[in-house]
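> call design_seq(struct)
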């Protein structure tokens, strides 16, 4: 897959990139990672699970915890700060905006990342798999030769 510089830098909203200092916010957030974010980053970095992830990356006017640009998959490590109703409403709006841009979002509670990282990684790997085009419902009847559709 061919990549262009603008694919990375301007996944953020160009009009708000400078005004909101998204680059500076992303850098600060990388320096202040939670234990769960750091554990997940160590498991993802360098393509360890077969996909390239970026951490604390701007998309539109938000900075997401992790993103695989190629798969349009966003990962969020959620701690107690995401529990209050006002934060949940903010997160729902953010999720909707990411979906408008074609991103899928997986959220993992910090405690799950810290206590069951292998399961978290399995869920991420499953989300990275392209849909199986051959998984359409069967008609229930075999092909005339009795073999598969390829005959």
């Amino acid at each position: 897959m061919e990549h262009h510089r603008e694919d990375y830098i301007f996944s953020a909203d160009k009009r708000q990139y400078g005004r909101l200092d998204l680059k500076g916010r992303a850098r600060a957030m990388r320096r202040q990672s939670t234990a769960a974010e750091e554990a997940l980053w160590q498991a993802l970095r360098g393509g360890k699970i077969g996909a390239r992830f970026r951490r604390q990356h701007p998309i539109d006017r938000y900075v997401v915890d992790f993103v695989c640009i190629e798969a349009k998959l966003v990962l969020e490590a959620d701690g107690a700060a995401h529990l209050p109703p006002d934060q949940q409403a903010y997160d729902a709006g953010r999720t909707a905006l990411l979906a408008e841009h074609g991103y899928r979002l997986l959220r993992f509670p910090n405690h799950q990342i810290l206590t069951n990282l292998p399961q978290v990684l399995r869920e991420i790997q499953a989300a990275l798999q392209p849909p199986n085009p051959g998984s359409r419902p069967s008609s229930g009847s075999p092909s005339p030769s009795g073999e598969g559709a390829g005959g």
